[in-house]
Amino acid sequence: RMVHIKCRGGTYPFSDVKRFVFSDDQVSWSATMENYIPPEYNSRVLHNKPWADPPIENTNFKPKWNDLDGNINRRSHLGNYNISTGRPLNPEGRTGIKGCGVLGKWGPNHAADPIVTRWKIVDNMKQINHSTKLRDCGQWALPGGMVDPGEQVSETLKREFLEEALNGLEVSKEQSTKDAEMIKEFFQVGTEIYKGYVDDPRNTDNAWMETVAVNFHDEDGKSVGKFYLKAGDDAQNVRWTDIDKNLDLYASHSNFIQLVAEKLHAHW
Ligand code: RP5
Predict the structure, then answer these.
(1) How many other β-carbons are positioned within 10 Å of the β-carbon of residue 39?
(2) Long-range contacts of 65-73 (CB under 8 A, 24+ apart)
(3) Do β-strands 125-134 and 72-73 pair in parallel, antiparallel, or remain unpaired?
(4) Which ligand 1 atom sits nearest the alpha carbon of residue 113?
(5) Best exposed site among 1, 66, 114, 202 by fewest CB in 10 Å?
(6) How far apart are CA 5 and CA 190, in angstroms?
(7) ipTM computed for the complex
C-alpha cells in the first residue's frame, strides 16, 4: 500500500502554514496518535468561487458524500471514504493539515491526466517523449486538469491537452479544421494507465486529488506527435519531455510515466 509523501511535511503550497510532522507508521488513521493536532487551512482564494464548496460548517452545505451529488462526483475511485465529525477523511491517511487547503472540493477532487507519447530513437534505443506543462510551483507535470461537473473523463483528457498543450498553435483555418479532425480521432483510442489517489502536495486530511491517467500513443509520429508544443504566449510552458528514470515530475506523475514506458517497452 502506498504511503503518501508529497503531501506531508514542510509548508502547505501557496501559504505559510506548516504541516504537522509525523512518521510513516503514523500515516494510517488506524495508528493511534493522541498528540495529533494539525493546523486548519482553508484558502481565501476559494471564498465564493462557483466551482468551490462552501465552508464545511455552512448549514446550507449538505453534500452527499460517497455519491453523485447533483453533477458533482463525490465518489472516490478507492471505494467509500469515512466521514469523521462531518468531514471526509483522506483514504490514504494523515497529511498534517486539516481543512480543504486550496482544493475546491471537500473529499475527492477529480482530475484526468492525458499522457501523450511519441517515439524518439536514441542510439538505436526506443525512448518515449511525452508532453508536459510547467506548473506554477516550478515543477514539470502532465498537462492534466480537473474534471468539470458532469463532464465525461474522456472529454476532460482531450480538452486539457488542447487547452494546456495546443493552446498557442498557429495554423491556417483550413489546416486547423484538419487538425481538429485528427485530434478527435487520436483521442478516441487510449490505454488507461492508472486510476486512483494522487500524492499531490495540495492534499489535506479532508480533501485530496484523484485522477484517471490515460496514455495516447502516436506510433508513427504523424498525428499529434508532429506538433511543436507551445502554450499561449510563453513557449517555455509546454514541451515534449524525454522520459528517464531520473525524471522528477509533479505529484505521482513520474510513476504514471514509468508504467507507460513499461507498457510500450520503451527504454527507462
Ligand atoms: C494532479 O493535479 C493531477 O494528477 C492532475 O494532473 C492535476 C490537476 O490539477 P490542476 O492542474 O487542475 O491544478 O493531482
Answers:
(1) 14
(2) 65/107, 70/149, 71/149, 71/150, 72/105, 72/149, 73/108, 73/110, 73/147, 73/149
(3) unpaired
(4) 6
(5) 1
(6) 29
(7) 0.97
Report whether 217 contacts 114 (CB < 8 A).
no
CA 57–ligand 1 middle distance (angstroms): 26
Return the percentage of the chain with pLDDT > 70, whole number. 94
Once rounded to an integer, what is the mean pLDDT over residues 39-56?
A: 95
Nearest C-alpha neighbor of 4 from the set 262, 196, 215: 196
Q: CA Rg, the chain, in Å?
A: 20
CA 112 – ligand 1 centroid, Å: 7
CA distance 256 to 14: 25
- Going from the C-alpha of 82 to that of each of 58, 194, 205, the distances in angstroms are 20, 23, 11
- Which stretch of DSSP H or E encloses residue 254? helix 253-263
Q: What does the alpha-carbon distance between residue 268 and residue 266 come to, in Å, rounded to a whole number?
A: 6
In this predicted structure, what is the pLDDT of residue 192? Answer: 98
Pairing of strands 145-146, 107-122: antiparallel
Mean pLDDT (whole number) for 71-85: 97
Does the structure show a pLDDT above 80 at 246? yes
Q: Provide the residue type at 122 as one letter.
A: V
Residue 8 CA to residue 24 CA, distance in Å, equals 10
Residue 231 pLDDT: 53
Residues contacting ligand 1 via CB (< 6 Å): 111, 113, 141-142, 144-146, 198, 200, 209, 211, 251
